[in-house]
Input
Amino acid sequence: MEPQVRDHAEESRFEISTDAGLAGFAEYQLRDEGRTVAFVHTVIDPAFEGQGLGGKLARAALDAVRERGAAVLPYCPFIRGWIAKHPEYVALVPEEKRAKFEL
Output
């Protein structure tokens, strides 16, 4: 099975799973009545490291936020670093907040 990412809204996190189970998650907080998604923490289980799952999780989570028309605040260093390496996602961060996140 190809890794699957889903928004587990009840837990306020995007989760990535494989055939072997839950591989990791990206926690978020909704702000401004859901118009802004603040990513606060990302974890990939050590058993799944080195498989590119963190990047797949980040891309899917950010794509889902983009589809909602929401903005992103990348407090999580992993999400912030991923956005920095993929400039096509910088536009999700409000322009006036980009300097704060060094984007």
Summary: The mean pLDDT is 97. The chain has one domain: 4-97.
